[in-house]
Amino acid sequence: MKMMSHLYTHLLLIVVTCGLASVVLAARHPPVNPHGGVLEEQEADRVIGLPGQPPVSFDHYAGYVTVNETHGRALFYWFFEATKNPQKKPLVLWLNGGPGCSSIGYGEAEELGPFLTQKDKPDLKFNYNSWNKAANLLFLESPVGTGFSYSNTSTDIKELGDTIAAQDAYMFLVNWFKRFPQFKSHEFYIAGESYAGHYVPQLSEVIFDKNKVVSKDEFINLKGFMVGNAVLNDETDQKGMIDYAWDHAVISDKLYEDIKKTCDFSTKNLTDICTQNLNKYYDVYSIMDMYSLYAPFCAEANSTSRRLPVIQGIAPHLFSKIDGYHRAPSGYDPCLSDYTNTYLNRPDVQKALHANITKIPYPWTHCRYVCPPTTWNINRGVWCVLSNYIDEMI
What are the angstrom distances between the C-alpha of 108 and each of 2, 18, 278? Predict the structure, then answer.
């Protein structure tokens, strides 16, 4: 993955693109409050003794930030300072999609984070294309119910949606900056992929509106955002998947024409004949990786990379009803998600990351159904939000 080279621009940027020891101590640079004193909460989140970690010179922190005290909602984060001169680098928040997919499991451990999981020992390897070479990098598991993030109020999960996700993410940032005040003045960017095509602009809109009325202590220095392979409009996203498969000779001309004739992607409901044709479309992807057509396929039995019962955020509204839709991207190693799943479910890893402190009654997974799809604005485009925000920024 290529490094983002324009993190420093003041303009809004929107990118839409389809043998080491098993335990290594992190660098120790006690955080200093600009107003004096060591920050105890921040220091408590410092990650030390992460199993399998390669030696690094930068500090990293992980833990929970409460976003709603009344309901007991808390979001889990993992933060990496830049490899060099973190005090001069911007801050980037990364969000994966879903809804309900982990930015720790995908973004950090398999895509753009400093530590990638691997099959062999040590358990982690340094990612030489990590984005924290260019910026301070913050991964957030959002909304609650995703990854290690949790709520003590069970009804919260049923009520989740775009609005609550944006509000909780905003409260996370407000409280996180109180814990890490040395980064509050840094240029701040929000980035993400997949259903983050909703998360990112909606959170940006909340920040922009709040900045007009909040005190200086809660002002967030937002400079822009980036979204890749983004869910922006359900109808065009779904058509695009079919066009892509046909253009790459994954499906036949006949099946392509049959889907075009029988499927109306502007409606919420699928006809039986459309469902049959889409299942034929997904049959092909039982033997290849739809996210990387020319990469090998993970053939291990019961592989989590092979089939996950979750929405991945690409044209989710209708396609989520089709059997073959529930798959996760595998990366260059087709079994990479298996390694991540095993690693993040280890008690010693969770202890080092200050994760799962409430002992949630289910294993960590890459993605989780966080609520019924009807509570999300999946089938609504976010062009209005984008347009309004761009007009305001420019």
Answer: 15, 20, 32
63: alpha, beta or left? (left if phi > 0; alpha if psi -120 to 50): left
Please report, to the nearest 10 degrees, the dihedral formed by the alpha carbons of residues 30, 33, 37, 39 taken in order: -60
> Whole-prediction pTM value?
0.81
CA separation for the pair 79, 238 (Å, rounded): 34
Q: How far is CA 21 from CA 61, 80, 121, in A?
A: 20, 21, 9
For the chain, the first-to-last Cα distance in angstroms comes to 30
Nearest to 231 by CA among 113, 312, 323, 337: 312
Supply the angle between the helices 196-211 and 383-393 in degrees, to the nearest 10.
40
Mean pLDDT, the chain, as a whole number? 81
User: Which one-letter DSSP state was computed for residue 318?
Assistant: H
Q: Would the pLDDT of 241 be above 60? A: yes
pLDDT at 59: 98
Cα separation, 364 vs 114, whole angstroms? 20
Residue corresponding to tokens 């895509």: 111
| Percent of the residues in the chain that have a pLDDT greater than 90, as a whole number | 53
Task: Please give the radius of gyration of the chain, using alpha carbons only, rounded to the nearest integer.
Answer: 21
Looking at the predicted structure, is the pLDDT value of residue 391 above 90? no
Coil, helix or strand at residue 240:
helix
Rounded to the nearest 5 degrees, what angle is found at the Cα of 86, between the Cα atoms of 191 and 337?
45
**CA angle (143, 160, 45) in 5-degree steps:** 25
The confidence score (pLDDT) of residue 377 equals: 60
The whole-number pLDDT of residue 376 equals 58
**Contacts of 383-392 spanning 24+ positions with Cβ under 8 A:** 383/232, 383/233, 385/201, 385/202, 385/205, 386/14, 386/201, 386/232, 388/205, 389/12, 389/201, 389/204, 389/205, 389/208, 390/12, 390/14, 392/208
pLDDT value at position 303? 58
Which residue(s) pair with 194 in the sheet? 230
Identify whether the C-beta of residue 393 lies closer than 8 Å to the C-beta of residue 249. Answer: no
Report the pLDDT averaged over residues 204-220.
94
